[in-house]
């Protein structure tokens, strides 16, 4: 294996994983710059990594797990602050519905937030979710069930029921 990856490998990483990593970081409540820093850190880790992945799913699972770990490490070190000038340049939320739902998901305990993100945003089934989060499939299903119950309570009155 060469000591460096080609520009094609770098482009493939960005196309396949950058958006996933940024969204996962944002669900952990990290700012966009923090999410970008984690994405860059993981990209550099991939450049230095000598191990071959068995397939695309193995590589993706590694990056999801590494992203979650990096988010936890950053949160453990404490919240970072930004200047008021930088906060002014932050874009307004797309819509009230999106921001309300996203805020409710971000307010969930970490294990429920990860389960919701991986299942509903990334499309992993409960078996894959269990493997990625290190729990049993039954525990993954229970986490999703509890997360839905918490979200229903948090978002009650925000949406009208559909019958």
Alpha-beta classification:
mainly alpha
Counted by DSSP, the helix tally is 8
- Tell me the radius of gyration: 18 Å
Query: Hey, roughly how much beta strand do the residues contain?
Result: under 5%
Helix and strand element order: HHHHHHHH
Count the E strands: 0
Main attributes of the structure:
single chain; 163 residues; mainly alpha; 8 helices; 71% helix; 0% strand; globular
Summarize the structure.
This protein is an all-alpha fold and 163 residues long. The chain has helices spanning 7-27, 32-48, 56-77, 84-88, 96-106, 110-121, 126-133, 137-155. 71% of the residues lie in helices and 0% in strands.
Task: Describe this structure as you would to a colleague.
- This protein has 163 residues and is mostly helical.
- 71% of the residues lie in helices and 0% in strands.
- It has eight helices and no strands.
- The chain has helices at residues 7-27, 32-48, 56-77, 84-88, 96-106, 110-121, 126-133, 137-155.
- Helix 1 packs across helix 3 (56-77), helix 6 (110-121) crosses helix 8 and helix 7 (126-133) crosses helix 8 (137-155).
- The chain is globular and about 50 Å long.
């Amino acid at each position: 294996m060469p000591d460096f990856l080609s520009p094609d490998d770098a482009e493939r990483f960005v196309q396949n994983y950058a958006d996933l990593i940024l969204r996962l970081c944002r669900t952990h409540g990290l700012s966009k710059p923090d999410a970008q820093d984690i994405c860059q850190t993981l990209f550099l880790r991939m450049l230095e990594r000598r191990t071959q992945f068995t397939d695309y799913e193995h590589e993706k699972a590694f990056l999801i797990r590494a992203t979650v770990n990096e988010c936890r490490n950053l949160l453990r070190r404490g919240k970072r602050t930004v200047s008021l000038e930088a906060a002014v340049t932050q874009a307004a939320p797309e819509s009230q519905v999106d921001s309300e739902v996203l805020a409710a998901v971000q307010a969930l305990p970490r294990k429920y937030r990860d389960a919701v993100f991986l299942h509903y945003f990334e499309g992993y089934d409960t078996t894959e979710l269990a493997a990625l989060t290190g729990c049993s499939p039954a525990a993954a299903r229970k986490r999703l069930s509890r997360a839905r119950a918490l979200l229903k309570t948090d978002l009650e009155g925000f949406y009208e029921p559909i019958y």
